[in-house]
Design a protein that fits this description.
By secondary structure, the protein is of the alpha+beta class. It has helices spanning 2-16, 31-34, 49-54, 56-62, 70-79, 83-86, 110-119, 152-162, 172-178, 195-200, 207-213, 240-261, 266-273, 292-308; strands at 43-47, 87-94, 100-106, 123-127, 130-135, 138-143, 146-151, 187-191, 216-225, 229-237, 275-280, 283-290. The chain has one domain.
Length: 309
């Protein structure tokens, strides 16, 4: 199931690359995912993979038929699941500082995936009539057209929630934050996420930046892909100084990058111009507006360079 974890990490990274609050109520957590989430859930990130596949920019990228790594092909062969084709929705939930869940929905052959886990030596534990496939401290629960994975205790909590007659309401502050997300965003996230959470999922970066990110207390984010990429976001820091320091650091890095590539890569300069970072009090705001035509041009250039090597 390494591919599932990889998709989850990508989702979180993309979500936190553009955290935003826009005061238009629209989105909600789907019932299929909500039934797994305990009331104490502290943060949620949703990736509507099916909607992303239908976005014009993504469809154009998929037409280029980039060859995936062999490990990806091996996973598809063993499980029968092609994430680019069969996964429709991914919901990532932060339950506590230590525990989290990933819920993947789509056309998933439960028995074939279970057989693949058995073949790989995963230990089976029974809990409340369900089988959890254990891998060290992590667990995987297979259901019809859905997979729930995370820390073993978090997966058990998800099974506990399944036994209840209806989905339990989320925390009022989390529910209110969800209502601030605008319709049409294929990627969105809200809640008490922090820089420390990036380390837990394997995201690394310069030590000073990671240290600054630890001061984040909460945020919301949304990313919409159509013929281009449009992202908005804010992160609330523990204090105004932390927000300003990170804003200054990122703005300075963008300015230096623009100077370095202004002549050599004018297209990349336009990409950097599409990113704006500002702070106001203890809140940092990120805005991203990127042209799809420009991104496709850069992708084509990158692929041609790779073929020449």
């Amino acid at each position: 199931m390494k591919w599932m974890l990889g998709v989850s990490i990508l989702a979180v990274t993309m979500g936190w690359a553009a955290m935003a609050t826009i005061p238009v109520a629209a989105v909600s957590v789907d019932e299929a995912s909500l039934k797994f989430l305990p009331p104490e859930t502290r943060g949620i990130v949703v990736v509507d993979v099916a909607a992303l596949r239908n976005a014009p920019l993504v469809q154009d990228m998929l037409k280029q038929q980039v060859q995936g790594p062999k490990a990806w092909d091996d996973s598809i062969s063993r499980t029968g699941v092609d994430p680019a084709r069969d996964i429709d929705r991914i919901t990532i939930a932060k339950i506590s500082a230590q525990d989290g869940l990933v819920i993947a929905q789509g056309r998933i052959d439960k028995f074939k995936v279970e057989q693949a886990m058995k073949d790989s030596g995963k230990v089976m534990d029974a809990y409340l009539g369900q089988i959890i496939y254990r891998d060290g401290e992590n667990g995987v629960l297979m259901l019809d057209n859905a997979v729930v994975l995370g820390q073993f205790n978090a997966v058990k909590k998800a099974i506990d929630q399944m036994q209840l007659p209806g989905a339990q309401p989320l925390r009022s502050d989390l529910a209110a934050a969800i209502q601030s997300i605008e319709a049409g965003n294929q990627i969105w996230g809200v809640g008490d996420f922090s820089g420390a959470d990036l380390g837990l999922i394997g995201v690394r970066g310069p030590a000073p930046v990671i240290e600054m990110l630890k001061a984040i207390r909460s945020g919301t984010g949304q990313v919409r892909v159509d013929t281009g990429i449009h992202a908005r976001g804010t992160a609330t820091f523990a204090d105004a100084e932390s927000a300003k320091n990170l804003s200054d650091l990122v703005s300075g890095a963008l300015a230096i990058a623009k100077l370095q590539i202004a002549k050599q890569q004018p297209d990349m300069l336009q990409v950097l111009d599409g990113v704006q970072v500002t702070s106001n009090g203890n809140m940092l705001t990120v805005r991203v507006e990127e042209s799809g035509e420009l991104l496709k041009k850069l992708n084509t250039t990158r692929m041609r360079a790779a073929l020449r090597k």
